[in-house]
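Limitations

Structures in this collection are predictions, not experimental determinations, and the ligand pose is part of the prediction. Treat each record accordingly. The example that follows, with pyridoxal-5'-phosphate as the small molecule, is included so readers can see exactly what is and is not provided: the inputs are given verbatim, and the output is the predicted complex.
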Amino acid sequence: MKPAEAKPPHMDHDTFRSLGHQAIDWIADYWQHLADRPVAPLVEPGTVRAQLPTTPPEYGEDFPALLSDLERIVLPGLLHWQHPRFFGYFPANASGPAVLAELLSAGLGVQGMNWNTSPACTEVEQQMLDWFVHLLGLPEHFRGGGVIQDTASSAVLVALLTALHRASAGRTRDHGTGECGYRVYLTAETHSAARKAAVITGLGLRAVCEVATDADGAMDAADLAARIQADLAAGLTPLMVVATRGTTSDLSFDPLEDIGPVCRRHGVWLHVDAAYAGVAAVCDELHWVNDGVRYADSYCTNPHKWLLTNFDCDLLWVADPEALVNALSVLPAYLRNPASESGRVTDYRHWQVPLGRRFRALKLWSVLRWYGAEGLRSHIRTGVRHARLFADLVREDDRFTLLAPATLGLVTFRHAGSDTDNRNLLHAINAEGTTFLTHSEKNGTFFLRFATGGTHTEDHHVHEAWRAVQNAVQNAVPRAQHATDGTADALNG
Ligand SMILES: *Cc1c(COP(=O)(O)O)cnc(C)c1O
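Predicted complex:
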């Protein structure tokens, strides 16, 4: 582009239109041919960056130049999360309707911090959250108490801030947490985001109390009760229990029916993290994932994992929204307005850590309208079926052991060899490129995780992934280890 123009070189509307078509074409091509690419990148640290110029461009360039660098520099440096044979971590699935609505949201470019800064942004979001109360069979008292957060990590942080506010009768807002002796209860299996929230709030890790788990990794409610009693006797203040419905490592479910009454008895805030599993409750037969949620003071689940809504989108409900607003509202003069002062509107900036907020509800609305509840159920059921299919293949091969029956969309398994053999196996599977799996540990023993739920995953992709696992055994595990040596049994001992 010409140097020294008097006006900034904004993209005119017609150019935007035609380049926009190119960008959509680019995404469609990417998705369509994704199965032909290796799932995981084979790059050394620093190689992507080394391909970028050392200084920014002085004069503007054409947009297609960016698209070609996307192809040349970026794609080889990506782990392809939307690949139909991506089975790592938990899915973070995107879908056509979600991505189009995300683009629309970007085009609208609204800031929904207050109701009056875009009434529709707030009200569509309120309606979506109420729709989800219905869709997931959540307690009716959550109606009107829902908000979209970026992530489950923010959800637990906001919940903890509100619990602090409630427990201190408002004092922590002005004076901080000080030496109040607050205690936060969780388990070894609780997501690290809860510990991080303890750090961010200033409670520190010393406020965190790890409750025992049973053989399945679920929180032991009797141990929780005993620890709360002991802390009370020691003059400490039980503040919050973080319970998980579907832990990240291997999907254990903390028993809310037992934990809830303990929390009620002592006035302890119960936060329920169902980031991955909660959305499965769209299916009647999977309603159990949210059993006991009626005890929750706060509850969250992520459509950005298994519900076809691209990152980021976490749904948080609180039983008492007023407590949340009181905990987080700080009102500068420049945001005062008659609508807020009328008390008739919701200003979502008080429901989250940042001030500004995107119109995330648009992509949820788009996903719900495109798929309908039935379409979402069918997607979840496909993921469950794929997990069972893979588990059956593992079960039929006596070199492998399932750690547990496949639950929802996760299969946890290991080869009969040593931990080192299993590590080498995982490395070989992922290096080959056909598929991508991740790992975790239980009682110090390494295992492999196979998580289904990809938007474009079909049965044959599951079979192809299993074949890749079997090929990797031939190459990565010494022959002598192919026979069962009993290590897997030690896991349950
Ligand atoms: C994935 C996950 C999280 C973290 O999710 P973010 O939204 O990325 O913060 C928290 N808890 C559980 C149980 C998870 O599976």
